[in-house]
Design brief:
Blueprint (H helix, E strand, L loop, with lengths): L2 E8 L7 H14 L5 E5 L13 E8 L2 H9 L1 H6 L1 H4 L4 E7 L7 H13 L1
């Protein structure tokens, strides 16, 4: 099942530091061994439909959760990571996707039955 690394980054008040640009130039080489690929990077075109949002979003897809986790904890990425975290505030998480054929209605029915039990 596909897994995702999702980062919600607060935009800096000034131009991006060279360290962040270097991070951006080098991150793909840390993703390649784990078959990670960018699905969203910064979201330059964003339409806020509810609430407020002035941050950047990054979504990286992986074939499965183990590869996503192995990438994040890899020596190569951990050595690179401070170039982003020392200069940009944000949140990052790993999350499983849903299986093929997933239906929210079926999940709702399961939750409803559990609540009524």
């Amino acid at each position: 099942m596909t897994a995702y690394a999702i980062a919600h980054l607060r935009r800096p008040a000034t131009d991006l530091p060279d360290e962040v640009l270097d991070y951006m130039e080098r991150i793909q080489s840390t993703l390649d061994p784990y078959q990670g690929r960018f699905l969203v990077h910064g979201a330059p075109r964003t339409e806020v439909l509810e609430g407020t949002f002035d941050q950047a979003v990054v979504i990286i897809g992986f074939p499965d959760y183990d590869r996503a986790r192995d990438w994040y904890h890899s020596t190569a990425y951990q050595q690179l990571l401070p170039q982003r975290t020392d200069h940009l505030d944000g949140d990052c998480l790993l999350i499983d996707g849903v299986p093929p054929g997933y239906e929210a209605a079926a999940t709702a029915a399961t939750l409803r039955a559990a609540q009524e039990a």
